[in-house]
Design brief:
Oligomer: single chain
Bound molecules: iron/sulfur cluster
Helix content: 25-40%
Strand content: 5-15%
Shape: globular
Amino acid sequence: MSEDFSSPDLPVPEELQGQVSITTLDKIYNWSRRSSVWPMMFGLACCAIEMICVAASRYDFSRFGMEVMRPSPRQSDLMIVSGTVTKKMIPQIVRLYNQMPEPKYVLAMGACASGGGPFKEGYNVVSGVDKFVPVDVYVPGCPPTPQALLHGLITLQEKIDKQSISSVHWYQKEASEPIPVPILGPDLIDPRDISKISGRTSPTSESESVAGS
Ligand code: SF4
């Protein structure tokens, strides 16, 4: 190390040479973000009870700088989707996700959030929150234990460690587009599909079929 410090390209005064360490911008940036991931304070079903346990004294995720659960998406870095995602709830989840500032992460906690769980194929439940928002970490279980969620949070930290400030999409020139909020009608409708849907069931053809009947 001292040889590097004495390099003419990197002049460091002799008295400082034992007190200077050199690292990369990525490492400092990732270390600061991974050590202060603030989760959003909301829960959807039984998995949320386990999430609450992780915040309590026995598991204590304040050890990871994550104890500041925020009641506002605008102050949150992490959305822990803890519970069954119903069709009625998904428009709110997407809206909250859009309101979170970047960098932002999503953790699907439990079988329901990851793929519908025991309610998969139910008329009122979506088969995984990843059909609507991008998920970074999946935690299996029904419910996952607090230890499993802790492992998921550590996995997220490891993922953050591997990111580079030069390649993450939120620092690129193009602004990120918000995800269109699904519309809940008789079923969920993606606003991007409205033109296709209205083409298929135009008011004229509907009124004709009513008149014909
Ligand atoms: S995965 Fe199991 S414990 Fe978690 S919300 Fe679904 S049914 Fe409840």
